[in-house]
Amino acid sequence: MKKILVINGPNLNLLAKRNSDEYGNLDLEKIETLLRDEFKNFDFELFQSNHEGAIIEKIQLASTSHDGVIINPGGYSHTSVAIKDALEICKIPKIEVHLSHLANREEYRQTLITAKSCDGYVSGFKEYSYLAAAYLLNKLINGAESD
């Protein structure tokens, strides 16, 4: 069974209090249930922190303990060179996710610093962004195994 680390950044612990039109109606616990129900071949470890350093430390350890990473860095997507650098060093497949459709949001949300160090990103499908990322990670991991 492949181990997938799902990292959620600042304010994602408060999804139930955020604008449901942008972020959907599910909290992180329900998103975890969706992932586990849909991808039984993955062992998901979910992690959430509002602290940049904790996220960086989790990414730094991922290469030795996991087969892939799904990351929603939240607002750090637009500001954190340090998280970008940690993702760049991490040599396992990585997909960035965003619940909201960033292209339809404010101008400052158009720059995704952290996504540049991932294999790709998914934006705008609310909780389904996580499912799409897991699907793509499955393809990346299985493709890497067949090389």
Characterise the protein shown here.
By secondary structure, the chain is of the alpha/beta class. The chain has one domain (2-146): Rossmann fold. It contains 5 helices and 5 strands; from the N terminus they run E-H-H-E-H-E-H-E-E-H. Strands 2-1-3-4-5 form a 5-stranded parallel beta sheet, with helices on both faces. The longest helix is centred in the last third of the chain and has 19 residues, at 128-146. The chain is globular and about 35 Å long. 37% of the residues are buried. The model has no long low-confidence stretch (mean pLDDT 93).
Give a short synopsis of this structure.
With 147 residues, this protein is an alpha/beta fold.
Poorly predicted regions: none
**Assembly level:** single chain
Discrete helix count: 5
Order of strands in the sheet with the most strands?
2-1-3-4-5
Q: Please state the second-level CATH architecture.
A: 3-Layer(aba) Sandwich
The CATH class assignment is Alpha Beta
Write down the overall mean pLDDT. 93
Which geometry do the CA atoms define? globular
Sketch the major β-sheet: 5 strands, parallel
Count all strands and give the number.
Answer: 5
Please bin the fraction of helical residues: 25-40%
Order of helices and strands: EHHEHEHEEH
CATH superfamily: Dehydroquinase, class II
List keywords for this structure.
Rossmann fold, 5 strands, alpha/beta, 147 residues, five-stranded parallel β-sheet
Q: What's the arrangement of secondary structure elements?
A:
Blueprint: E1 2-8, H1 20-23, H2 28-38, E2 42-48, H3 52-65, E3 68-72, H4 81-89, E4 94-98, E5 120-123, H5 128-146
Parallel strand pairs: 1-2, 1-3, 3-4, 4-5
